[in-house]
Amino acid sequence: MSEANPLCLFWEGFEPAGWSAQADGSLVVRLSACAGHAPRCGGCRRSVSIVHERNRRWIRERDLIDRRLWLDVPVRRLRCGHCGVRTEHIPWLHGRRALTGALARHAETLARLWPIRQVADVLGLHWHTVKALDAARLERELPTPDRSRLRRLIMDEFALHKGHRYATVVACAETRQVLWVGEGRSRAAIRPFFEWLGSACHHIEAVAMDMNTAFDLEVAAQCPNAVVVYDRFHVIAKFGREVIDRVRVDQANAMGRDRSARRAVKRGRWLLLRNRQHLNARQAVRLDELLAANAPLMQVYLLKTQLKELWFAPSMTEARQRWHDWYRLALETRLAPVIRFANTLKRYVEGIVSSVNYRLNTSVLEGMNNRIKVIKRMAYGYRDSAYFFLKIRDAFPGNVR
Ligand SMILES: [Zn+2]
Q1: Residue 79 C-alpha to ligand 1 middle, in angstroms?
Q2: What is the Å distance from ligand 1's center to 84 Cα?
Q3: How far is the CA of 105 from the centre of ligand 1 (A)?
Q4: Is the dihedral of CA 202, 206, 210, 216 positive or negative?
C-alpha cells in the first residue's frame, strides 16, 4: 500500500498516475490502482484477486482551486467466488453516480441554503443530479414523527401549480412539526394520513381547519374523540374576501360620477384588510377618513373586529353570547354579503366556540401558509410534488429534533 503518497487519502486504493488539461480548462487526474491493495467485491465486499476486465470511468470530483476536476478511474470487474462477476466496491464513489462522495456531500450542503438551480450552476452539475441528491438526503434525515404523542393537529390545504391542483398539509399544533403532506384535498386524499396514524387516532383531541373543506367529515369518521375547531386566520380571511371586498366594490360602483371618492374606496382594499396595529399614522388617518365617509364600510369593518373577539372569549358560554350579539348586528346591517356570510358561519359556530377549550395558535397556520409560498417559488420550474413536499417537511421539523 502506498501510504507515503498523501493523495491516497482522497481516493482509497488508487493513486494519481498523471495529469492533463482539457480544452475547456478542466483538469483530468488519471488514477491507477495502488499496488498491493486488493480490490473488494461490490456484492459481498470480500477481497477478490481475479480481475475479469478493466473499464475506465470518468468521475467528477470537487473543484481544484478554480478548475473543474475529473478523475479517470480504472474500474475492475472481478470474478468473485461467491457473487460471480461483479464490479469492485470503491468506497469514495457516490453510489452509481459519476461523482465522488465528497462532491455529493458538498452539493447536499449547498442545497440546504440555495435553490437547486444555483447549486447546479456553481458546481457544474445537472439540476436533476442536485435535486436527486437533496431529495435522498431529506429522505435519509427527516425524522419520523412520534405518533403516540400527538394530541392536537392542524390541517390545511394549499394550491399547487397556479391553483389548479391542491395539496393537504397536516401538522402538530404543539410542536409545529409537519407530519404529512399529500396531493389532493378530498376525504380519500387525506385518508392515508389517518392510516399512518393508526390506533393513535384515538388520542387526537382537536383538529383545527378551514371551513368548507372535506376534512371535518374525515376527522369525525377516523378520530372518535376529536373536536373540530375552525381557526381564526381562515375565518377572518374569508370575511375579508367575501364581505369587506364585496361591500367595498358595491360601494365604489354606487358612487357613480364622484370619481375621487370612488377611487378612494377602490384603493382602500389594503387598508381595510390589514390589521389596524400594522398601519402607520398616515395610513390610519386615511382609513378613518374612508370609514367616516362610508357607513356600510364602517359597519363591516367593525363587524370584522368584533368577529375576532369570538376566539378570545374566556368561556364557551361567553363565546356563545358573543356569537349571538355578532349575529344580531350582522343581520341589522341589511347588507346582503354580510347576511350571507353570517348564515354560513352559523353552521360552523360550535367549531368556533370549541376553540375556547383548544387554543390553537393561529399564527402557526399563517406562518405555514407564507412559508409554503416561499418554498413553492424556490421550487418552481420542476413540478415535482414529492420533492416539494419533502422541502415543506424539512422547513417544519418541529421544536424537538
Ligand atoms: Zn462477492
Answers
A1: 8
A2: 7
A3: 28
A4: positive
Residues 6+ apart with CB under 8 A from 321: 313
**Does domain 147-231+360-395 correspond to CATH entry 3.40.50.460?**
no
Which grid coordinates belong to 291?
370609514
Q: Give kind and range of the element (H or E) at residue 168.
A: strand 165-172
The Cα 153–Cα 170 span in angstroms is: 7
How do residues 100-135 score in pLDDT, each as one tens digit? 999 999 999 999 998 889 999 999 999 899 999 999
Query: pLDDT (tens digit, 9 = 90+) per residue, 131-180?
Result: 999 999 999 999 889 999 999 999 999 888 766 789 999 999 888 899 99
Q: 294 near 251, Cβ under 8 Å?
A: yes
User: Nearest-CA neighbor of 375 among 396, 349, 400, 356?
Assistant: 396
Contacts of 301 (CB under 8 A, 6+ apart): 244, 272, 291
Instruction: Show Cβ contacts of residue 7 under 8 Å, excluding neighbours closer than 6 positions.
Output: 15, 16
- Distance (Å) from CA 90 to ligand 1 centroid: 14
Q: Closest Cα partner for 15 from 76, 94, 90, 73?
A: 73
For residue 48, the CA-to-ligand 1 centroid distance in Å is 8
Ligand 1 centroid distance, CA of 49 (Å): 11
Of all helices (H) and strands (E), which one includes residue 214?
none
> How far is ligand 1, taken at its centre, from the CA of residue 46, in Å?
6
What is the 102 CA–ligand 1 centroid distance (Å)? 26
- The Å distance, Cα 81 to ligand 1 centre, comes to 7
CA of 76 to the centre of ligand 1 (A): 13
